[in-house]
Fold this protein.
Amino acid sequence: MNDRYEHLLHKSRDAKRGGRDAWAVQSTGERVAAALVLNRADWLSEIEYTIAEAIERSGPEWVAIIPQIARQLAEEE
């Protein structure tokens, strides 16, 4: 795991545990990526992003690790 993976994992875990309130205090880029990890299209809609826009905003480095982080969080349940 690299620093980028650990960072997004931490932010996504915080949002998963703390809900919308924990997610809302993150930077826009973190919010977009965490919403993708958590499959929260409703959160993306709140900040006026479509899924396609969220993917573009996240960039290829984060998009590549989103499925891994989503699996890891699912396994932690």
About this structure: Helices lie at 3-24, 28-37, 41-46, 51-75.
